[in-house]
Amino acid sequence: METRFRPFIGVVAAVAATIGFSVTAATPASAAVSYCAASGSCPVFAGPDSGYYYADIPKFTATQMICWTDAQWYSVNYSSNRWFKVSTPYTSTTWMHSSEVYNQISVSHC
To answer: Which positions carry the signal peptide feature in this UniProt record (predicted)?
Structure first.
């Protein structure tokens, strides 16, 4: 009777391995890319203040979030004093208001 179950155990092991592979192949949520989102282009600044306007980058541009600070209150998509130091394909290190950074990740204080 023991030999009848050996092929069944092999099938169960193969199914378990397949299910395990598909679960481990899933992309973690932390791998989401941060990007700029505004009604048009996204302004970036040389410092965490609207007085330091630097340039506009295209909407949906990927941003690498570096750190954050609280400075001038500013309102685009919502009002906040939170600014992120970011790097984009169009700029080296610049600042972007928090309301324009979507898919925000956890970064340390600057």
So the answer is: 1-31
Give residue 55's domain range. 31-102
In this structure, what are the phi and psi dihedrals at residue 8, rounded to the nearest 5 degrees?
A: -65, -40
3-state DSSP helix/strand/coil % of the chain, to nearest 5: 30, 40, 30
CA distance 43 to 58: 9
Nearest C-alpha neighbor of 39 from the set 22, 56, 19, 26: 56
Question: Residues 38-78: pLDDT tens digits?
Answer: 888 999 999 999 999 999 999 999 999 999 999 999 988 89
Distance separating alpha carbons of residues 49 and 56, to the nearest angstrom: 15
**Could you tell me the pTM of the whole model?**
0.70
Three-state secondary structure call for residue 48: coil
CATH value at residue 84: 2.30.30
